Amino acid sequence: MSDIPLITPSDKDYKNNNNNSNNNNNNNNVNNGNVANLVNSYNHQISMNNNFSSNDLYSSSNLTNSQVTNRKSIYAVESESPLTYEDYGITQDTNPLEAKHTIQNHLFGFKPFKSKIVKKKIEDRSPEVKSLYVEDNLFVDKSIKTIGNYIYAITFGALLFLLFILFSVILTLTFFGFPYAKLFWRLKNFVLWPFGKYLQLSNSTNFNDDDERTPLRSGKRSVIQEKYSVSLIIGTGLYYLLISPILIIVEFIILSVSWEVVIMIPTAKLHTKLLVNLLKNPLLLRVNNYPRADNQILLYPVEAFNIYYYKFTINGMNVCLVNLLPFVILSLVFGYALEEHIPPIAIFISCILSTIPLSYYNGMAIASISAQTSFAIGALINASFGSIIELILYIVTINGSQEEVARSALTGALLGAMLLIPGLSMIIGGIKHKEQRFNPQVMGVSTILLMIAVVAAFAPTLFYKIYGNYSLSCGTCVEEITSMTCSSCIDNPDFYTLNCTQCLQQKISLNCGNCQYTQSNLDDDPVYTTKARTLMYICSGILPLAYLVGLLFTLKTHTHILHPQASDNRKSQQIGQSGEIPKPQSHNTESQGHGGESYETEWSKSQCIAVLLVCTTMFALVSEKLVDTIDPVVKALGLTHEFLGVTILGIIPSAAEYLNAIQFSINNNMPLSLEIGASAAVQITLFQMPVLVLISAIMNHLSSDGSFTLIFPLMDFFAVFFGVMVMNLVFTNGRTNYFIGSTLVIIYLVIVFCFFFTPS
Questions:
Q1: Do 427 and 745 contact (CB within 8 A), yes or no?
Q2: Residue 592: what pLDDT?
Q3: Which of 136, 249, 316, 334 could hold 602 in an S-S bridge, CB 3.0 to 4.6 Å?
Q4: pLDDT below 50 — which residues of the chain?
Q5: Which chain regions cross the lipid bilayer (predicted)?
Q6: What is the end-to-end Cα distance of the chain in Å, rounded?
């Protein structure tokens, strides 16, 4: 008898859970009768085979009717488990605004932003960070013999020590300023080594050192009486007219340097309070090794350096970024008031540094206002203001006849988003966490759209490079005679020469150097005017359409897949109802979160709008002067416009993305770090490029002269193509470490060096 193929059910085909049974029945449209008939057919086949029997097959267990109906069809597709709040790290302690902000970080159309948009309570922070916000650490148990304190003593401390001695000598020579001379003599040792000493404000009416031990009936005049005396008035005038201006200048320099160094902010706080009291109550200042009960304690410094101050925030912004804000004012002053007296390189550097805080403030405002509005409005704000910094720079560059720089800057931004952002994130995250993993299948809509976006954005380039007209361009040509016919020649044996007359030129050739095939002006090429330009406008219209499709997919049709759902077994995961994030009652004042806990946003809606407007206006002014300095900087540094665009102008405007990606990787959130680079690349290709093409077409009436077109140089095309290929290979791995990150950075550097050696 011929062998009959058997289909033997396995243990995994049967479920004992009634809920799973119902789901399987609904999904596969299989009823109990059909399954029973199918099993009977199998048993009939088995009975016909002498080698097998139904008893042998099912001897391990007795199948009931309910067990049989649980058999799953081979064509059934198992549904993936939906995302939960737990997958995003959202718990019952997370307030609604932060929960919504976290969800938006994982959605297409929203730029992931690391910083908190809700004020974090001081008591919830680590002890090291908590101590940064305590103004009066009067009893801190720390060692004062540290390297940082000694560095302060031999730098700022020694300078102020000598300066205070000089002040004391000058005031002593004036005779009238003797009380102030004693003041600086007392403070000279304090400014040299203030650590472990108490700076106090005397409550006594006497400014002598022994005023607290002076009998009440000693007959000594008080400060109230002395200040009306002629000598004290003259001495006070000398102090504020001669000494105070110098003191303010020196202290301001020390304050500025200390604050900019960040880890020296304790020194800045020390001298801020010292300067304020030297201007308000100078004669009442006392220095003691131990606090006195009848004096008010002003300072008890124990450290000049604190490495944890890089975590210090001011109004929700990191102090490192706040310290770059003065460069915005400096750039405007240098560029518009002192342009003729300041070197172009100094203006260029100042403008570049001012771009970093403006872009970060812009990103913070977008993230905050998006969390306080609906998903649709938030996506619209991200699409418009999310690229405003880059668009302003590119438009000003194109308007300044630097369209090649704008095109190179876009290429550099793409390379940075695809290679440098994930590379740096993997290196820094890998150093801390050894290895980080992610699911390559759920990298998001941004990764899926990236390849399509790059193909559509560079399709006009590929088309024109293949079908465009080429011409041979050469340098200076020189005529050369290759042969000559002569007659009437006489041999001169003395000089071994041959003298001829009546010579005729027969062949002449042109010797031309540096010849190469080039494409002429785009407007003069019929391939561009009739075909490539139309293709460029078609692609520019398709690219935003793909962006809208991604938004529709994320925010409308597939929200059940991309939005987290509340977990059934844990009520603590149920933030809001039906998976929605409840809106707070007020965004400017404290609102009630879960469990009655109050929370307060860092910035209200009105503050976010004001920040967006101010940042946009300031950067428009700064970018104007930045573009004006491109030619002098390129000439002074010996660089090419393409290299400057690919590196500095392509990276600096996106500084916020780099900082956020690194912060996510440090917190072991590699998917969001990679999503930042992918979403940035998608926004460049799907939004920024079409906008620039549209604006150029309007400004120049469809002419390519001085316009931005999607006809890139071949070097740019191949660089982006290789960048996409390498990034996709890395993303399919599902795990990252510092080795993989270093390879991405190395590839980026190789491409950048190729641009460095590219002829201008």
A1: yes
A2: 47
A3: 316
A4: 1-69, 72-78, 209-220, 223-224, 226-227, 495, 568-596
A5: 150-178, 238-265, 319-338, 344-363, 375-397, 409-430, 442-463, 535-555, 674-698, 710-731, 738-758
A6: 83
